[in-house]
Amino acid sequence: GTEQAREVPPLASVLLALRAPCDKDDTICLEVIQMLSVCMQAEEDHSSDDGVREGVAALLLRLEFVQWLMRLSQKKGIATPVYCKVMGLLACCAPQLSGKPVLLRFLAQLAEGLRTALRGPSAAGASAVEEARLRRLVATLNFVASLRLCARSAAVLVGPEQSAHTVATTGSDQVGGLGMDGWLDVVEAEGRPPSTPAAAPALLHHHELRAAALRGLLAVATSSAPQGKAYFVGSPRAVP
After folding, report:
1. Cα 134 from Cα 186, distance rounded (Å)
2. pLDDT band at 190 (very low <50, low <70, confident <90, very high)
3. What Å distances lie between residue 135 and 23, 60, 89, 200, 204, CA to CA?
4. Total Cβ atoms within 10 A of residue 229
5. Residue 192: how many CA atoms within 13 Å on its side-chain side?
6. Rounded Cα gap, residues 157 and 167, in angstroms
């Protein structure tokens, strides 16, 4: 009886019951994410625990709730507030994800999304579409910055982009990275001064994007991958 109680804690039953409603209702989804964020914060505040009890992040991974969050983030038409909250919660789970195959697959999806989003328009001013694009990019890069990257993770993010022909002929299951130039383009981009007060939020998110890209590059530089620093040394823009 004791072992079964440990295997299925009350939180697990609640989460499994709420997953379907979360798929259908953004409000419920945001409330669940907020609840989990509070649980993780409370756990962090009482980190003097003996370490025997399973942590919230480890529980979410074991229940495949983390994997569900990853799929939810890639759902077509997901609202920007939900996407940002999902990525924030995944960032809290980062210590549990290092080196996991599920993370590598997810990073490949994120890299493809980043490649597309970073090619989007940057002069939309006060456009709500442009502001949403920037918010999503910031949330994505903040998640990347929270990770302890291994060699394969770093390659997915910063390695050279693979052509479709290369992927087909080598059978690689990884998407090529953005390349160092892609990251430096974000860091070096200058936001346009807002022409109206309504355009100010987009400029603020633009500055946040540059900061998030720098944190992402720092994660690469401090990763356990021997190639981490090589990406910088091999770029004339990164190391003049």
Report:
1. 11
2. low
3. 22, 25, 15, 14, 10
4. 14
5. 11
6. 16
Query: How much is the average pLDDT of 205-229?
Result: 86
pTM recorded for the entire structure: 0.81
Residue predicted with more confidence, 238 or 171: 238
Tokens standing for residue 136: 């999503």
Structure tokens at 212: 């998030």
Buried residues in 187-210 as b, exposed as e (16+ CB within 10 A): beeebeeeeeeebebbbebbebbb
More confident: 115 or 198? 115
The one-letter amino acid code at 82 reads V
Residue 37 has pLDDT above 80, yes or no: yes
What are residue 45's phi and psi, to 5 degrees? -65, -20
- Under DSSP, the state recorded for 126 is T
Amino acid at 226: P
d(CA 235, CA 180): 7
What is the mean pLDDT of the segment spanning 121-125? Answer: 48
Task: Return the closest-CA partner of residue 62 out of 12, 2, 109, 18.
Answer: 12
